[in-house]
């Protein structure tokens, strides 16, 4: 069915559940037309908000078009930031907050992030990540989680929700029913969560229950195949939504993870996934981050037309769409009311203090002169879209004369080490790593480098895991944000965790 032949009522019902991404810092014509036709909202990615002033201007233009539009983004702090993608986040992420384990600090950091989002005109933060990172080999959660203990994750999830919503920005707990005990990145294919319902209740659902109890206005379903729900990913599965609503008592809006991710893009496909998600209980469809302006418009039209066709064919009841739209409007109403309140004052100095407190330092890590830096971090972080160069940049600024090199992607371990170490003789050696425990070749290379240079300082931006068995001199930051890097550089220059 083409939009021209679709009824106005059906079109508005369909638009009321869509959260598309778009390209640029000025709303394109197709997006403004969709806003006029009842679009639920938009999702910002880094290319939309290159700086705070541009972000605020973009939001003002959209909200002038329609004041109840939901403007969303995922500003987790730490490794995942949109507002500070170019420089790295000025806030420690969940891994560092969980390491410090002070819920008052977590609440204050979330409130500060919320302050920045309010200033940018963003009313829905697709955060916090409340996954319990139970699988050390998890390729996409890692330090985005508060930790691997359900009780710890739960208390910090609740604190984050309280802080974010105290700033007048709606929080969204993700990725239901839990992405932590998986070994596959849902950006690429469907992860399998093999926990039975009893384990889910004892572990993965505990933080979601805490976030809901704290008043989280939104909940994001993940593209995760969970054992108790059958084959369909939770984002497309009515059993997942039923569990959230009937067992956990969630009454807010359910939003999907981005529907352009590999986990659902190949099977069942983008348009069918949109229909299945609404049938599965989703109230808002996050359409994702298309690669070009043309792809963004195509994604929106494909989603809209797939839903319109499903209505026309009797596959998608208008009652289900109306129910979803009602919850989306309730969320928009909460955001609009919050926007009328004064934002809390911004607490300066806290983020760096937290990043310093989170550092775990072992051995002799102070550098006497500009070091030779070997960066082992080759894998792109699909959640943040980067390899996080902030540590390299801050080190280079602090120590002119520093040399940075990578490593050959392939070859025998000894040969790769030979190449990486060329030019390092007589200089302090720093090795940057993120998750060597997930890659046997990277672990072998790190072990070889440290065997040749026992004085090497290993700076690890992920969880420590087995790094102590590999190196005597380590700095663990629990995140790749700029503020984590700043705290690490201070230590490498001879400072203390508290800046003394």
UniProtKB/TrEMBL annotation:
Keywords: Glycosidase, Hydrolase. Residues 37-327 form the Glycoside hydrolase family 3 N-terminal domain. SUPFAM superfamilies: (Trans)glycosidases. One of its GO terms (molecular function) is hydrolase activity. The keyword Coiled coil does not apply. Belongs to the glycosyl hydrolase 3 family. This is Hydrolase. It comes from Streptomyces camponoticapitis. The lineage of its organism: Bacteria, Bacillati, Actinomycetota, Actinomycetes, Kitasatosporales.
């Amino acid at each position: 069915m083409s939009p021209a032949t679709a009824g106005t009522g059906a079109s508005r019902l369909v638009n009321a559940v869509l959260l598309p991404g778009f390209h640029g810092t000025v709303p394109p014509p197709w997006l403004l037309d969709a806003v006029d036709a009842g679009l639920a909202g938009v999702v910002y990615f880094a290319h939309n908000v290159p700086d705070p002033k541009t972000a605020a201007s973009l939001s003002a233009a959209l909200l002038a078009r329609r004041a109840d539009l939901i403007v969303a983004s995922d500003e987790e702090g730490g490794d995942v930031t949109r507002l500070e993608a170019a420089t790295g986040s000025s806030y420690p992420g969940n891994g560092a907050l969980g390491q410090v384990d002070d819920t008052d600090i977590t609440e204050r950091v979330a409130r500060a992030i919320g302050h920045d989002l309010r200033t940018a005109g963003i009313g829905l933060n697709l955060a916090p990540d409340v996954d319990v990172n139970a699988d050390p080999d998890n390729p996409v959660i890692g330090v985005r989680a508060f930790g691997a203990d359900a009780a710890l994750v739960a208390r910090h999830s609740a604190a984050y929700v309280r802080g974010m919503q105290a700033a007048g920005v709606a929080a969204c707990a993700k990725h239901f029913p839990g992405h932590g005990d998986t070994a596959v990145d849902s950006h690429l294919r469907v992860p399998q969560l093999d926990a039975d319902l009893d384990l889910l209740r004892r572990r993965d659902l505990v933080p979601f229950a805490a976030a809901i109890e704290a008043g989280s206005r939104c909940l994001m379903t993940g593209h995760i195949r969970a054992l108790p729900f059958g084959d369909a990913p939770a984002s497309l599965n009515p059993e997942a939504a039923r569990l959230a609503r009937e067992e956990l008592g969630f009454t807010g809006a359910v939003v999907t993870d981005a529907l352009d991710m590999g986990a659902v893009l190949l099977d069942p496909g983008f348009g069918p996934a949109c229909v299945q998600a609404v049938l599965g209980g989703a109230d808002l469809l996050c359409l994702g981050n298309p690669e070009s302006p043309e792809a963004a418009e195509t994604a929106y039209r494909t989603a809209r037309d797939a839903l319109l066709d499903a209505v026309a064919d009797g596959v998608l009841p208008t009652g289900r769409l109306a129910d979803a739209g009602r919850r989306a409007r309730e969320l928009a109403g909460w955001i609009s009311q919050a926007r009328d309140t004064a934002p809390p004052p911004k607490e300066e100095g806290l983020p760096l203090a937290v990043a310093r407190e989170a550092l775990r330092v072992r051995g002799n890590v102070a550098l006497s002169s500009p070091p030779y830096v070997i960066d082992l971090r080759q894998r792109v972080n699909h959640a943040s879209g980067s390899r996080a160069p902030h540590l390299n940049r801050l080190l280079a600024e602090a120590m002119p004369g520093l040399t940075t090199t990578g490593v050959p992607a392939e070859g025998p371990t000894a040969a790769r080490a030979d190449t990486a170490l060329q030019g390092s003789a007589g200089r302090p050696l720093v090795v940057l790593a993120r998750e060597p425990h997930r890659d046997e070749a990277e672990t072998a290379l790190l072990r070889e480098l440290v065997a040749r240079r026992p004085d090497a300082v290993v700076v690890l931006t992920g969880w420590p895991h087995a790094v102590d068995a590999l190196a005597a001199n380590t700095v663990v930051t629990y995140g790749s944000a700029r503020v984590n890097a700043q705290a690490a550089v201070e230590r490498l220059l001879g400072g203390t965790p508290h800046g003394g």
